[in-house]
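>> Question from a student workshop board

For tomorrow's exercise we were told to take the sequence and the ligand below, predict the bound structure, and bring the output to class. My setup keeps failing. Could a helper post the expected result so I can at least see what it should look like? The ligand is zinc ion.
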Amino acid sequence: MLGVSKSASEDEIKKAYRKLAHQYHPDKAGGDEKKFKEINEAYQVLGNKEKRAQYDQFGKVFEGGDMPGGGANPFEGFDFGGGGFSWNAGMGGDMNDIFESIFEQFGGGGRRQSASSHGSDVEIIQHLTLEEAFRGVTRDLEFKTNVACAVCGGIGYQKEQGQKDCAKCGGRGELRVERRTFFGRFSQVQQCPDCFGVGKTPNAPCASCKGTGRVFGTRTVRVTIAPGIDDGQVIKVHGGGETGERGGGNGDLYIVVKIKPHAHFTRVKSDLYLVKKITLAEMLLERPVKLKDIGGEEFSITIPAGFSLKEKMRVPHRGMPKFGSAARGDLYLLFDLEVPKHLSAKAKKLLGELNDELGS
Ligand SMILES: [Zn+2]
Ligand SMILES: [Zn+2]
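>> Workshop helper replied:
Here is what the output should look like for this input. Compare the format with yours to find the bug.
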């Protein structure tokens, strides 16, 4: 170790670190890259107040804390000071987390497995038309994922056959494993891999799901999409995803909404744009122009005298609903003047008169 006692101050730890780092620096004669690395790792733990507080509460799972004098210690040669670290049994903190971090740091140990495991989240894409986005829609979405086994009801074994004490751990759910590390020798309490720490194993695992409590199948989720949903919006259905193992709970379902382009309307957030063909009469005589909005509702507008076709006309509240509210965006009209392809002699004459009348 760094050769400091548990009660060592930060300064003492820093000093000890510098001394050892100097001594074992790979560039030095007598340096040792592996030991240098280990010293650095130890310092990262002990030099960090927060981490140290965790390890100071660690004692419960260390046996004693005395370093063995024997040669089996892979870190032999380090000065562990007066008996090295002695770890106090402490309260608080998640022991598993501490185990994980310490063993990960020193390359040992493994992840704690759970008797049950939570299902994964599932993402599906749902295409809607603009009309559906306008009105809102309720759909039964079907997709393939792991679903609860119908035979055992998701627990993974035949319930009526019951469970017995785990043979591997004798029903304790945990196994004691001796470890030698840089910090000294201590025994780690490991979760039993056979019963996942429960201490019980089923008498008759479910054959249908091979004991996992789930099978690959089809899930149907009914989802109601509110009016005004926009392209790319995501709807979360809590628990609508994959079923976990042995009753571990479902993941969530994320529905990514894609809105198909519309033949006539173009959407910009809650506003819509529409190109409308108009006749000369509608343009010049202020005759009503009939239109249908995205909801299929008919309405009409008149083009005011002097209106420029380069402008767009705003029709308030004829756009898309604003998601989550009763308000609607606006509709913007762009006009496309229909020019007659053929003019009769009479039409030409009348247009000539019109031209004169307008006094150009
Ligand atoms: Zn089953
Ligand atoms: Zn067991």
